[in-house]
Input
Amino acid sequence: MTAENPRPSVPFEPKKNRKQRRSSAPKGVTIVNPTTPPPAMAEQGSGFIPEIVSQRMIRRVLVFCGIPVLMGMSVFIIGYLAIANNWFRLPNTVVLLMSMGCLGLSVLGLTYGILSACWDEEEDTKGSLLGVAEFKVNFGRMKDAYRASKEMEASNR
Output
């Protein structure tokens, strides 16, 4: 924790105010410095997500992605039965567009489910029901990581 930022950082959050220097070491030589991740984390890669955080993400994805997928499949099946049994006249394109809309909504639900989960490993709370506050924090982290990667890419050129 720092004085300017009271919340603890998560393992995969970008480090702010850290300047990357170009290494003058020959190719193939590894320079060890204090910011090198521990060996366990290096084996798992920089995209390591703690188990408890991934479980929160999975629960959210099952709700926000699973419900629209079931709706899309239901629309398709009900539309097929309605057309095949002449219950009512329904154009095939309406069934197609409605099921595609539900499946498209499930893709948005997948993204929202991941971003609305609490990413703090030490925190015991699962977050709010809809996860709006967590979404704002995590979306901000994602934007910061994107900016940091763009800056690093620009400085490496």
Q: What stands out?
A: The mean pLDDT is 79. DSSP finds four helices and no strands in the chain. Helices lie at 39-44, 51-84, 92-115, 132-155. The two ends are 32 Å apart (CA to CA).
